[in-house]
Design brief:
single chain, alpha/beta, five-stranded mixed beta sheet, 11 helices, globular
Length: 376
């Protein structure tokens, strides 16, 4: 494996520029260099249906007037080998005369999974793998989760006081954290494929659940857990150009059947997709919901919900990561981060591992993943 990684570092920086852009495709960067180290072209994956990083870099080299025959392509993920909305990237590199490909990691997509490397090698292209693997994997944690587990990477965002209160007993919660923390939270929204909330939050707060505090070329889709379809048609979550998926169980009872059907038609008329996934206890089957979202192309699922849904997701061991904003204030008794049953022993608590702790404005942001959770 090559130890000359400055160009891979540059490619990873390019991949990060696709953070808000490429969903549901992975975030990939590519740098093409001449044998003497001159950068000939570079690029990153565009919006779904647009060119992938390798093709953008090849076009960039052509626009600069450079030929790439005999050059090296530094790419942060295995070049694809299948025909999707775009053609195979490995074929584009071969046709351009690329002599060497240095890739960070094998693509977890079973439609690729080593086939891109095999096709390159069969064409006489030298392939090296491994430089920047951890960084590429972290950048695409949701894509790896969807491909390897069949479920999105679930990140739960919570804003709370230092003593863990997310809202007062009367429901007041605006604003516990600072404008800087709220803007930072919008950046995490922007990188997600979809935002999940519960109907209680939709009714109480009437949130838009869109990205406003940072610039983004796309808005995340919205997912609402709403067992009996109480979501009002005038809810601000219905915005043209983004999907809204509502997961329900069915009518309250037999007498509610006709009214439930009418509510469903009204929501579908707004463009919402209503899926019935009844689970135990008359609740939505949460694991089945995650599998369904993965089939819809959701890589990272960003949860912004109340303590009831937060507790249900944690109790079902479906949360991978917590994004926690703590404000330097004490609010006393109120609503907590998650409604969970009392534990019999301290050792029964959910163990987390800190990934990053840093100030954001006057608040503290903590990113932690569930201990032992496979990070691929």
């Amino acid at each position: 494996m090559t130890t000359d990684t400055p160009f891979m570092t540059r490619a990873l920086g390019l991949a990060a520029q696709a953070l808000f852009l490429s969903n549901p495709n992975p975030r990939v960067g590519c740098v093409i260099t001449a044998p003497d180290g001159q950068v000939l072209g570079e690029g990153f994956t565009q919006q779904a249906g647009g060119p992938h990083a390798e093709v953008v870099a090849l076009r960039d080299a052509a626009a600069r007037g450079y030929g790439v025959r005999g050059a090296t392509a530094w790419v942060t993920l295995e070049p694809c080998a299948h025909q999707g909305r775009t053609g195979p990237c490995c074929d584009a590199l071969i046709a351009a005369g690329i002599a060497r490909v240095v890739a960070s990691i094998e693509d977890p997509n079973p439609l690729v999974g080593g086939q891109g490397f095999a096709r390159l090698r069969a064409a006489g292209v030298t392939v090296e793998v491994g430089a920047g693997a951890a960084e590429s994997r972290a950048l695409n944690i949701g894509f790896f989760s969807r491909m390897l587990r069949g479920t999105p990477w679930v990140r739960m965002k919570v804003a709370a006081s230092l003593d863990g209160t997310t809202a007062l007993h009367n429901g007041a919660s605006q604003w516990i954290t600072s404008p800087e923390a709220r803007a930072d939270g919008h950046a995490w929204r922007a990188r997600a494929c979809a935002i999940l909330t519960g109907v209680g939050t939709v009714l109480a707060d009437r949130p838009r659940l869109d990205v406003r505090a940072v610039a983004t070329p796309r808005q995340p889709h919205v997912v609402v857990l709403d067992s009996h379809l109480r979501t009002p048609p005038d809810a601000p979550i219905f915005v043209a150009g983004r999907a809204c998926w509502i997961y329900a169980t069915g009518p309250f009872d037999a007498q509610d059947s006709a009214a439930f059907a009418a509510r469903r038609l009204a929501l579908e008329a707004l463009g919402a997709t209503v899926a019935l996934l009844a689970g135990a206890g008359g609740r939505v089957d949460l694991p089945a919901m995650l599998r369904d979202l993965a089939r819809r192309g959701v890589n990272e699922l960003h949860v912004e919900a109340g303590h009831t849904l937060n507790g249900a997701l944690l109790d079902a061991a479906l949360v991978d990561e917590l994004l926690l904003y703590l404000a330097p204030t004490l609010l006393g008794p109120g609503r907590g981060m998650a409604d969970r049953p009392p534990l019999a022993a301290v050792s029964h608590g959910l163990a987390l591992e800190f990934d990053a702790v840093q100030p954001v404005g006057r608040d503290l942001r903590i990113l932690a993943h569930v201990q032992g959770r496979d990070r691929f």
